[in-house]
């Protein structure tokens, strides 16, 4: 049986939670979504949580809130899933790619500083592989230049930055609850933030700009209240109660699931410590990574491609995260200069890491790596 690079951890408890929602008759945006929002915000110590159908939706709603114009720019890392960059383009603005740090693969604040212009409106930092980006430095740059900072924490649910939960620090943080994320809802996302004024606005915008969603109108004291107003052109981005029910169970398990990921990462680190041709992922002393990915660096592109085939032949499916966004045909015309990202991605490979990875299967991965000849 093939060992995948990522896999969700689902128990009978999640399945039963979905069954209960199915039997309740309320499947869409409703009481379970509201419960998930309250519990998630409490867990990460955020002012609010607005639950959505994806992190893509979260990023779009936040960038949309900035009223970006076609002559305006948002600085972003190229080392990310394409949703992060598309969210800027959706609003008609221009992505400007800043290079990455070679150790964490996160956006380099020094290069961000070099690329700020009079057209810059915002900075997006991504917590690559679950390792929080340099929030203090990036937020200071944003404050000093009158910009908005947005954190893409799609990989970092449950991570800590200087002892504080990711999601409680940045003005806006966007989460993913995709199928293989640390906390899965099957599909889903969320926005958390430090300014409670945005909660109402995001909740309206996720439901087509309608002033009160169906659940809120059903809670009125005098029965169902049909009347509502449309004050903005919003989107259909809300979470469903089916997804929220899964998320509530997953949230109770999150600390345990992330600890298992940490243990797997530690086991890899010990097993590979003496391999001089393999560069292991780094965790800076002031963060606690959520270890969504375990990314190693091979000596060169040729050895990386040979390693992928080597693992596939042994029933192990590795991953590559990611082809940098500035190299995709759609964004290539921007002619971005990101030498570290352009070189380092060719040597990256993601090894299997997920809570249900057995010791025997991890042992097979370790043996395969150790037997490889670069």
CATH class of the largest domain, named Alpha Beta
Query: Helical element count?
Result: 12
The percent of residues in helical segments reads: 25-40%
Name the quaternary structure.
single chain
- Strands of the widest sheet, in order across it, are 1-9-8-5-4-2-3
Query: What is the mean predicted local confidence, pLDDT?
Result: 95
Shape: globular
Using only CA atoms, what is the Rg? 21 Å
Biggest sheet statistics: 7 strands, mixed
Element string (H = helix, E = strand): HHEHEHEHEHEEEEEHHHEEHHEH
Topology, number of strands: 12
CATH superfamily of the largest domain: Type I PLP-dependent aspartate aminotransferase-like (Major domain)
Using the coordinates shown, work out and report the CATH topology of the largest domain: Aspartate Aminotransferase, domain 2
Number of domains: 2
Span from first to last CA? 26 Å
Helical/strand content category: alpha/beta
Keywords:
single chain, 374 residues, alpha/beta, Aspartate Aminotransferase, domain 2, Aspartate Aminotransferase, domain 1, three-stranded antiparallel beta sheet, 37% helix, globular
Question: What layout of secondary structure does this protein have?
Answer:
Blueprint: H1 12-24, H2 31-44, E1 48-52, H3 55-65, E2 73-76, H4 82-90, E3 94-97, H5 109-115, E4 120-126, H6 135-144, E5 148-152, E6 160-161, E7 164-165, E8 172-176, E9 189-193, H7 197-205, H8 214-218, H9 241-272, E10 287-288, E11 294-297, H10 301-312, H11 339-344, E12 348-351, H12 359-370
Parallel strand pairs: 2-3, 2-4, 4-5, 5-8
Antiparallel strand pairs: 1-9, 6-7, 6-10, 8-9, 11-12
Helix pairs in contact: 1-9, 2-9, 3-4, 9-12
